[in-house]
Amino acid sequence: MPEISIVIPAKNEAPNIAGLLDEIDAACAPVCDYEVIVVDDGSDDGMDQILRERMETHPNLRLLQHLNAAGQRASGGQSAGVHSGVRAAKGHIICTLDGDGQNPPSELPALMAPLRAEGSEMIGLVAGQRVGRQDTMSKKLASKLANKIRGAILKDGTRDTGCGLKAFRREAFLALPYFDHMHRYLPALFSRDGWQVAHVDVAHRSRGGGSSNYNNLQRGLVGIVDLMGVAWLLRRRKKAQPGEVAREE
């Protein structure tokens, strides 16, 4: 049984996926026992064939594919990809990163370290915080504004919830309420359940190939609704926990 499960939600990342997996092996093999789960979110660029061939020589690589009710390939979004991967994972610690290659796998050991350290039982999430972000100016400005608004409303103490590099406890994640785009609100959701959230500065780099599956307008429109929903969840959290009374002898 692997200690760490590395979950990669990916759609149409054929130009990037093989190199990303090579980097993961180089970074993690000296550190821990791990598996890699790629969740194919409706790709049609041949990425799945690259992964099938690689699985023949890499027994710790697993492939999940999102399907609709008719059994055809379907896209559920990034949060659905993370959720599907975590449910299938065998490790008790989960690390996530994007499939576009912008999150350097060399950062994974630093992300998982706080959760593996002695006395870390109350840490539920380690959130990566991008430094020197390599994106277009419009994307960086939109992200900065969204993070500022989110932080003011949720007070989650996190400056960059959009970073794909995260590490967390599997059972704690699965106890969270699922909704599309929940991956952008994990610090607030983990804190809601009483977990401590740690932060690690991580590097960021340009996309290697392909194109982004989202644009600023799409993120902004869904973000307004999601933010109000998460704020409601925080207000309605369970405020008392049970303590069992011992039987008198």
Automatic annotation (TrEMBL):
InterPro entries: Glyco_trans_2-like (IPR001173), Glycosyltransferase_2 (IPR050256), Nucleotide-diphossugar_trans (IPR029044). GO terms for molecular function: glycosyltransferase activity. It comes from the Bacteria. Residues 5-173 form the Glycosyltransferase 2-like domain. The keyword Transmembrane applies. It holds the Pfam family Glycos_transf_2. SUPFAM superfamilies: Nucleotide-diphospho-sugar transferases. Keywords: Cell membrane, Glycosyltransferase, Lipopolysaccharide biosynthesis, Membrane, Transferase, Transmembrane, Transmembrane helix. The keyword Cell membrane applies. This is Dolichol-phosphate mannosyltransferase. It comes from Thioclava nitratireducens.
